[in-house]
Amino acid sequence: MQGCIFTAFWALAHECGHQAFSDYQWLDDTIGFILHTFLLTPYFSLKYSHRRHHSNTGSLERDEVFVPKKKSALKWWAKHFNNPLGRFLEISIQLTLGWPLYLLFNITGPPYDRLACHYDPYGPIFSDRQRLQIYVSDAGVLAVTYALYRLVLAKGVGWVISVYGVPLLVVNAFLVMITYLQHTHPSLPHYESSEWDWLRGALSTVDRDYGILNKVFHDITRIHVAHHLFPTIPHYHAMEATKVIKPVLGEYYQFDGTPVYKAIWRELKECVYVEPDEGDNDKGVLWFRNKL
User: Ranges for the Fatty acid desaturase domain (predicted)?
Assistant: First the structure.
């Protein structure tokens, strides 16, 4: 339960990164920095990489997170994971190590000419004018790490693991699961540069249903389509916006109410790589496949 509440804190910080929490950027950045830093997430680093994701959603060349591979780019071990045991191992690794590996090594992100790390102010993810804020993010994470060290000395390792460590693992698991399921579905296309445009990319996402956790997570789980179309709409108006855009988008609005524990297993099974449809002249539009 504490991990779910921490995830709600993380969702609010994400809103602040879009300046979708208040009318004042200084207030959004202050609240976002405090909440994300408390959860060992570098606020400004993620703010900038996440904006790149929103600017390039669905692009195979420029998107920032959960960029699928073409069949020809799969590693040799992919076929060995294409079975129930392999998928279980993949889920286990993804939900425990996926978030820190993304921050540290840009796992599931686009290829850069060198290591892209969210803690590196001079990494290829960031521009020169953003580097000072990356240092601020790093200083915040180091300060919380030091505070946790002092807590261990005062309360003991077991206490800190119980009160903070295990809930943080729950947060990391939910972040990866929510993001993965919002951008991975058999009905979602991905685009090469010849076919990609911003609107196509923004519609290449799907809303999900997490039951009672929808409200706990400030509805970020089921308003993702609206969020990509209008990222500055606050979460407290996003359901209202979603209800309005559904009839406008019609068949282009994507929602899947499959229970998420079933959905993540299905998507790992069916969404292994992307390829264009056979005989399709629009070779820049690619769809998920699983035949190896």
Answer: 7-254
